[in-house]
Design brief:
The chain is α/β, with parallel strands linked by helices. It has 2 domains: about 130 residues, Carbamate kinase, CATH 3.40.1160; about 70 residues, no CATH class. Helix content is about 40%, strand content about 20%. It is built from 9 helices and 11 strands. It has a 9-stranded mixed β-sheet with strand order 4-3-5-2-1-6-10-11-9, with helices on both faces. The mean pLDDT is about 95.
Length: about 240
């Protein structure tokens, strides 16, 4: 068995990843493929935590544009992430993995409250921990939640999944076939070029704490496993 390069990782799954090829809702077949990749990684002895988005169900920014109060829209989005977390938990457990879902907002009938030391203990016991409801605060994205949780649990790398895009480009490759992909970027380059890979608060958090970000295509076969094994895929954002 290949010795993993990373022992503890945080995987950010966007709502887009849950929807698969559809534009809305949860595509179970896609979720099973993701679960199998996660299982492969845990079998390598890697501790895996996951932050889930909710854009496949609810988009707070769009609701705000339609006239909804921003804070209310963001709280609704947090509930959407809980739905995704429960769906992912069920599929992971169907693959034989022990999981725990922790929510940043109180919803104890379906999820534990987020407690940092408890989440670390779950990971140490080999459980997959799913973080739902972002940071629990409006005006904060799930990208920021992913960076924050990764730092809190002392993850070695933040894995940012993209669906159908194999890294960071200077423009959207789905709209511009001549877009150029970056193999490596510094945090400052990503901030200065205003690349829409994740929000500036999240990148700044990673920069301050020297947390490496790897942006990659979740659809690519064994993509998570390849990263854990040390293969160079996607785009790396770091201090160098």
């Amino acid at each position: 068995m290949i010795s993993p390069k990373y022992k503890c990782v945080l995987l950010k799954l966007s709502g887009e990843a849950f929807a698969g090829k559809t534009r809305y809702g949860i595509d179970t077949a896609t979720l099973r493929k993701i679960a199998r990749q996660i299982k492969q990684v845990t079998e390598m002895g890697v501790r895996v935590a996951i932050v889930v988005g909710g854009g496949n169900i609810w988009r707070g920014a769009q609701a705000e544009q339609d006239g909804m109060d921003r804070a209310t829209a963001d709280y609704a989005g947090m509930l959407a992430t809980v739905i995704n977390a429960l769906a992912l938990q069920d599929v992971l457990e169907g693959e034989g993995l022990t999981t725990r879902t922790q929510s940043a907002i109180n919803i104890q009938a379906v999820a534990e409250p987020y407690i940092r030391r408890r989440s670390i203990r779950h990971l140490e016991k080999g459980r997959v921990v799913i973080f739902a409801a972002g940071t629990g605060n409006p005006y904060m994205t799930t990208d920021t939640a992913a960076a924050l949780r990764a730092i809190e649990i002392r993850a070695e790398v933040l894995l940012m999944t993209k669906y159908g895009v194999d890294g960071i480009y200077n423009t959207d490759p789905r709209k511009n076939p001549k877009a150029t992909r970056f193999d490596r970027l510094t945090y400052l380059e990503a901030l200065n070029m205003r690349l829409k890979v994740m929000d500036t608060t999240a990148i700044s958090l990673c920069m301050e704490n020297k947390l490496t970000i790897i942006v990659f295509d979740l659809q690519a076969p064994r993509s998570i496993e390849k990263i854990i094994s040390g293969e160079s895929i996607g785009t790396i954002v770091s201090t160098e």
